[in-house]
Structures are given as structure tokens and as C-alpha cells.
Amino acid sequence: MFKYLVLPAALLCATSVQADEGQWQPYQLPQLKSELKRIGIAIPAEKLADLSKHPMSAIVSLGGCSASFVSDAGLVVTNHHCAYGAIQRNSTPEHNYIANGYLAKTRADELPGGPNTLVYVTDKVENVTSRVLQGVTPTMSGKARSEAVDKNIKALIAECESDKFYRCSVPAFHRGLEYYRIRQMMIRDVRLVYAPANSLGDFGGDIDNYEWPRHVGDYSFLRAYVGKDGRPAEPSPDNVPYKSKDFLVVSAEGLKNGDPVLLAGYPGRTSRYKLPSEIRYARDRAYPAKAGEIQSDLDVIAAATRDSEASAVRYASVVKGLNNVMKKTRGLIDGFARKDIAAIKDVQDAEFRAWYAKQPRSDQKMLAELDALIAADIALSDEEFGYSVATTSDLLKTAAPLYRLAQESAKPDAERELGFQQRDLPFIKARLTRLEQSYMGSVDQARFAAALQRYARLPKSMHVTGLDALLPAADAVPALYAQSQLGDTAARLSWLGKDVAAFKASSDAFIQLAVKTDDVAQSLKDRRKELDGNLERVIPQYMAAVIAWKKSQGKPVYPDANSTLRVTYGTVSPYSPKDGITKGPFTTIEGIVEKNTGKAPFDAPQNLLEAIKAKRYGQFKDPVLGTVPVDFLTSADTTGGNSGSAVMNRHGELIGLNFDSTYESITKDWYFDRDITRAIHLDIRYMLWVMTEVDHADNVLKEMTIKYPKK
Hints:
alpha+beta; globular; 41% helix; 7-stranded antiparallel beta sheet
């Protein structure tokens, strides 16, 4: 049997890599020296591995997106769509910054990003596997194992957060083979500095999403503020800009086909080590069901907001997010149809099992147990999907965690569920407050009623045990909203701190529904704990064997993405999506004029069109293209969460912002195909050109250190 707890860290690194595949932990980069040198990266790998040194010290997370510091005064650049929540929060029909953009000419004009706009600066990563698994035994039930691991993780987090200015986490790597404790300074006062008009920052909209060629200026600027002592503080007029230890120099020198790039950010989730059965479930059941559900919800929102500009603005961010997930989900479905990834994995799985059978001390029962657990996981995932459909109501999603918080608050803090400890209260309060930005009772009511009808039509395998009898009928939904005060922010916040008895005595209809359905919800969670605990016992054994097998072949071995800091690399590269078609790696501003129709989403700002037609290229003209580039392609390995990631040249200078992938690349979350996998980036020269010629963001330009091409 593989002793997965004593695998050396070096085993997790490939000795030979022949593709741009890999979302590498920074500490792994010294093992990739030859590969980085091969593509032309000039920064020493040891420096890239050091989070305290440039350029990694300038890379930050926004909690779902990536970003980077570009001045010593806390100026952060990221994607337009990553700052969309802050833009929307400050927009009104009278001051529509979504439509018109926003530029703070002075720091006093910078707008509050809101309680959910945060900047996380990672400063420490340490392997804590042995401490997470301390006290865990092979004979434990799955639930007992899961709770023991959670207890150890909570202790590690509490120890790390003895300094309240830090936010710590202990994510699993290689599906539970290793655990790392990650410490991040959490900056809570983040303000909107500059965002272009939506017709520029989201040119092409959902039609162009995941498509190539693209012509979108997907960038925005935020600023991190701290207390006068230099430490994170609650938002206050007395706060001062954060003094960034390091920041990226912005290079306007540009790239050409074949040039190397480094990309650093916080990719969300990938599933590259899933088994064939898991791929078939995603392909045949999970993704089609998800796509159908999202489309139905979008249709309901569209109908409910059609006649109200105020409701359309209120739900703009929700719709944008749903559309993005929908396009990706459909891309995954199409990608699975285009290439039989499950069949490819069948071959790999058979080769692995044949190799594993020949290894000394290999445990053949482990694979049989793994297959059985994955089958159980698939069955439970069906019920969890059904539960998500049945609870499509922002008010129920508000009431249920509030009631759970009341129950958990009766316990000592260390014994509470993760997510309901004292450290989580500011985030819970922020979510309750944020709801006012994207909630209207009439719209939520329509969504809930329609979702209940869809849930009733789902296959029985997706119905949650014990839930059906507790749910209201669709025609009873209006009465629930009439008998609830949770649509009001003050009323929502008033439930913080109340005890279980107050919830049980409440006459609020959604509080009553949350209390009534809590046992079913907890039963579902307990079943998940039992299953996950068993999976976390077996999968690390499997992953240890897979890593040993791959290393014996000299293949790249890196953990699946899990929203932690990663580095990838590649080259500026065209690609061929199908026979007879080759798509070049650059687009130019002339393409904006060609695409422009004057109607959303192809309605470029008039001053932008005038600058293009006048050929006011300035110093941002590419010598090969003869004009200003807009977006470009590379072979870098990215996924969701990499939005806003810094794309750097061989010297670690900022030359682009990652924002998307080509449609053909979407299945890279499951399988990396080097021939067609391409990431899409904003060329920093387009951003600088717009700031200079169109939006006249002179104060922001002046603040950055910009390296212009030599004349």
C-alpha cells in the first residue's frame, strides 16, 4: 500500500516537461528551470518561487479574480468584469457608471468598492499535512474523519489568525494528499479608481464571450486603503493608500508571435485527475442539467426585469455572472462532444491500473473501493443539484444560513462549523448587506416560483430525501414574500445574534421555511461529510500512486487548481480550431470599427471610434501590425479565477491581463490539449492607448511606472 503521507515534495514535480501545461505552485518552479529557460524566461526560478520578492509579491487576489499592484500607493489593476460589482454598486439611473465609465481625478473622488470588494496579499505558504491529519485513523467513519480534519484545520487557522489583520486558509492539494496553510493580509477598504465604459470594457458582451477574435478592453483600476499605521482597517475617510512593497512595471514595448510569457494569479478549479466515470457523469448528466437550469433562470429574470430599468440595473451583475457560467457550461458540453475525453481517460486509466498492479505492496482493494465511492458521490451530487434548484430564492438563501448561525453560535467557537465561526461574521454581514445591490422582491418571487416548478419535474434521483413535503407550492410563493421582512437590509441584519428560540418563534415566512427545512439540509450535509471523509481517505492513496506513475514517465505533475496562487507560462501563439482555419494571435483596433454596429453589445464609444479612424496611434503602434493591438493569445494554462491575472514578459514586466479562453479551450479544466488550448489576454498597449487618447486618465497613467518602446 502506498504510504502517501511520506511522499517527498520533490515527487510532486516533473523532471521533464514538454508542454505549456501546468498550474504550478510557486515552490515547484525551481524544478522547472530548464523549461523556463527553454522558452526564454529571464527571471531566476528561485526568485519566482519566493513570495516576498518581485514579481510574486505584487500579485494579489480579489477573492474570485486575480490582480496586481502597479504603483507603490496600492493601485491595483484587474479586469473590468472583476470590478463590475463595485461599478454597479455605485451606479444609479442618474449616474450610470456601467454605461458611462468612471474616472476619479483625485483620490478624494475614489468610490467605495463595498464590503465584498477585498484585496488579499499572500505572504506565507507552509505545508501542514501532518498536522491536518494528526489523530486521523484508518478505522474512522467518513464523518468522524471529516470532522477530525475540520477540527485540525480550524485550530491551524485560529493559530494563524492570532493577528486579526490576516485571513488564513488550509486548502487541500492533490485531492487531499497534501494540505498547505496560506496566510493572506486582507485589505477591507478598497475603492474604485477608474473603469472604462461598458461598451469598451465589455465590447462584444456575451456574444463574444469565450470567442476569438476579441476586441475588448477588459480592465479596471482599484486602490487598496489601510489605517494610518499601515495595517488593514475598516473603511474610513481617515485611511491612507496601502504602501505596496512591490509593484509591476508596465511595459508598452509589446510582444510578437512566439515570445514567452509568465502568468501569475489564483485559478479557481480544475478536474484534471478525475476518473473516466466522473467525466461521463459531468458530460452526460451534470453539465446538461446545469445548463438547462441556468437558462431557465435567465429567462425568468429577463421577463421579470423587462419593463423596469431600475430592476435591470439591480440584476445586471447577476445576469452577467449567470451568462458567463452558461457560456462556459455550454462550451464544456460542446468540447466533450468534439473530443471524447472520457475515452482518452479510459486508456490512461487502464495503463495506470496495469502499472499499479505490478507495483510491490500495491493495494488492489483500494481501486475497487474508490470506484464504489465515486458512484456514491455521483448519486449524492444529483440530490445536491436538486436541492440547489429547490432553494433558488435569495430570501431562503438568507434565512437558512442565519438559522444555522444561531445554532452554531450556541457552541464554543472552536466547535462551530467552518463558515459560522466568529471570524466569519464580517463576511456574513457583508453578504446580507450586499443583497440590496441585486435584489428586488418581484424578481426573486418569480425566480422562486419557477424554480419550484422545475424542481417538481426533475427525475426522482434529483429529489432530496424528505424535502418535497416541506416545500411550498408554486402558487403559494407570493404569500411567502408578503409575510417576510427579509427583503429589507435592516431587517436581515437584525437577525444576527438572535438565538434559536427567536427563530422558532418568528412569524416571518422565510424564517419559518428555513427552520422547517433545516433538518433535511443538515442531513444532506452529514451524508456529504460521511462520503467526503471516505473519499479523503482513499483518494490520497490513489493520487500518490498516480503521481508516482506519471513521474516514472517524466510527465508534468501539478495539483489541480484550488483558488491558490499559481504560476503558468507559455508563448504568444496562433491556433487552428478546425481544418483549414488558422486564427492569428493578435487583434487590432481596426477590428473594433469592423465589428461596431452602434447597438449593444457592439456599440463602441464614439470618441474611441474617432480616435481609431484618425489613426491616432501614438507610441502604442506595433511595428509589425502597423496599428494598436487590442487582445492576444498565448498557450498559457489558465481557468476561471485567472481573470485579471498579470501576464508578464520575460523580465517580469506587465504586458497584459488575462481575461478569457477560446471556446475550444473550455474543456481544459478536464484535459489540457496543447494544440488548441489558448488563453485570451488584453494587450496592455490597448489599455494605455485608451487611457491616453480616449479617457484621458492622465492621473492614473502618471502614477504607474511605464516602460515605453525605444524610439
